[in-house]
Specification:
493 residues, binds flavin mononucleotide, NADH Oxidase, alpha+beta, elongated, 2 domains, 7-stranded antiparallel β-sheet, Outer Surface Protein A, domain 3
Length: 493
């Protein structure tokens, strides 16, 4: 009897699987059986598919991740020149690379991570790093919960990575600090080749960045890139995701839900006292006496007056009516994306004028102020913070706080809602600047207000309605409405 040694256990390795994005379809072109039509999110691509293996492979990829070795034996093995079937499949996969999801699975079939292309330009070309190559997570990479997976994404990447298992997350977590492939393999007690493959995927997806310059302190290109120096990861991601072109998240308002009615669920009105009707200006008088647009534009500037005076009720009424009221027919003097009007105005005054000290909610339809009965300490805090932000040594006579009812705009414009409402703040601020300049009132926009203070002062749940813009105003000693006699540059040289 001859005894033979048991076969050596094969080292665990990662299997590469291929699939197509769910929004991709594959069919044979109607006019030519040798041509295939691949429809992606972005376009229809006609491709030669004379060899049925190409069509079969793509079709299998529409059902989910598949090892292409099962479709074309030897596909992932070493390249053998002159193999036309393999070359045809490879070139087809390259042509539709922006629709191809690449998945790494362990030998038992468990999918570990997937790299999903997000844009037409996405091309994925993983390489296996050397055992001593050192990487770190990109400082722009963020990890969040997706649908059933952890989602690793970066505003600098054309791909997102789905981490399907705790093991994949452990691997990623090893790279919070620079680590070599060899160190990671040792730490996780995983074969070196497994880590090389996975790190190659994460590097090609832009989530891990390679270090250069060792031994000694390593250097990472993204840390030295002047274009990235002043971007915080949060701001770059918000910027990236609030405009189309660099990701695949829906931004198309046509696909969005209609905006909910104002004051629907999640939009509680703050508790208000008896409303105070504001004076309505005579627009014929305003038209007859107002300076020309160019005069107001040329005179506009930010005024930070320590000796600023309270606005009279007539002035406050005129300013709000001309800048922010809801017109009976439609619209307001400032524009709003989709006519959604997510902004609400709150007026806080010092009490040195006709209005008692406190905060008021402006009702743009009734052109009225609702006293909020805010605790005096919060009114003090609002005015104190605004004065400091404007660089004043006293409280500003009037603070206008703009809040946004996120539900109103978020439902109608998913993805771009936040950037759209900030643009709206800018449009309203410029309207306030120009009207107050024409009226001879000193205006100044502020960079920020305290979210917690305003939410508490106005009785709001900041998650549903939060401060997004602040503006201070003061009547000016010796000031009066700007007229055509105030030639450009004479009042404010
Ligand atoms: C979005 C924005 C935020 C601002 N934040 C502040 C601020 O926090 N404090 C301040 O005193 N001025 C602030 N300003 C006013 C600017 O400092 C001012 O517009 C700039 O210096 C140009 O001067 P001008 O407005 O007189 O032309 C802000 C202006 C804008 C548009």
């Amino acid at each position: 009897m001859t005894s033979s040694a048991p076969p050596a256990p094969r080292a665990p390795r990662l299997v590469e699987l291929w699939s197509l994005r769910e929004d991709t379809t594959v069919r044979t072109a109607a006019d030519d059986a040798g041509t295939g039509l691949v429809s992606t999110l972005w376009e229809d691509i006609k491709l030669p598919m004379a060899d049925p293996v190409v069509h079969r492979a793509l079709e299998r990829m529409t059902y989910g991740p598949v090892s292409l070795d099962n479709v074309l034996p030897g596909f992932s093995g070493p390249a053998s020149p002159g193999d036309p079937r393999r070359a045809a499949l490879r070139s087809t996969l390259e042509a539709v690379g922006h629709a191809v999801i690449r998945t790494l699975a362990t030998g038992d079939g468990t999918q570990q991570l997937s790299v999903v292309p997000m844009v037409r330009e996405a091309r994925f070309a993983p390489r296996r790093p050397a055992p001593d190559a050192t990487h770190r997570l990109s400082r722009f990479a963020t990890l969040r919960v997706g649908t059933g997976d952890m989602l690793l994404e970066s505003p600098l990447s054309a791909h997102r990575v789905l981490l399907h298992t705790p093991q994949a997350m452990w691997l990623v977590s090893c790279y919070v600090r620079p680590a070599s492939v060899r160190e990671t393999a040792r730490l996780l007690d995983v074969p070196l080749e497994v880590v090389r493959t996975a790190v190659g995927y994460l590097e090609a997806a832009g989530m891990l960045v390679p270090g250069t310059g060792g031994p000694g302190p390593l250097s990472f290109a993204e840390d030295r890139d002047p274009a990235l120096e002043h971007w915080s990861p949060r701001e770059l991601m918000l910027h990236n995701r609030s405009r189309p072109g660099l990701h695949d998240e829906p931004l198309d308002p046509a696909r969005a839900e209609p905006a909910p009615e104002p004051d629907g669920p999640g939009e509680p009105r703050p508790a208000a006292g008896a409303p105070l009707a504001l004076p309505v200006p005579d627009l014929d008088r305003v038209l007859a006496t107002d300076p020309r647009l160019t005069t107001a534009l040329e005179a506009r500037r930010s005024v930070r007056a320590d000796d600023g005076l309270p606005l009279s009720l007539a002035q406050l009424g005129e300013l709000l009516f001309r800048s922010a009221r809801a017109r009976p027919a439609a619209g307001r003097p400032y524009p709003s994306v989709g006519s959604v009007y997510p902004l609400e105005l709150y007026v806080t005054v010092t009490g040195s004028g006709e209005l008692p000290r406190g905060s008021y909610h402006y009702d743009p339809a009734a052109h009225a102020l609702h006293p909020l009965g805010s605790p005096p300490s919060l009114v003090d805090a609002l005015l104190g913070e605004a004065g400091a932000t404007a660089g004043l040594s006293a409280e500003p006579p009037v603070l206008i706080s703009m809040t946004a009812r996120f539900r109103r705009i978020g439902a109608a414009y998913p993805g771009l809602a936040y950037s759209a409402l900030l643009k709206e703040v800018g449009a309203l601020q410029q309207t306030l600047y120009l009207v107050s300049t024409a009226m001879g009132i000193g205006p100044c926009a502020l960079a920020f207000g305290d979210t917690a203070t305003s939410a508490r002062a106005f009785g709001l749940d900041w998650r549903a309605e939060s401060g997004v813009g602040e503006f201070v105003l003061a009547a000016l000693p010796g000031g009066g409405p700007l007229t055509e006699h105030d030639r450009i540059g004479t009042r404010y040289p």
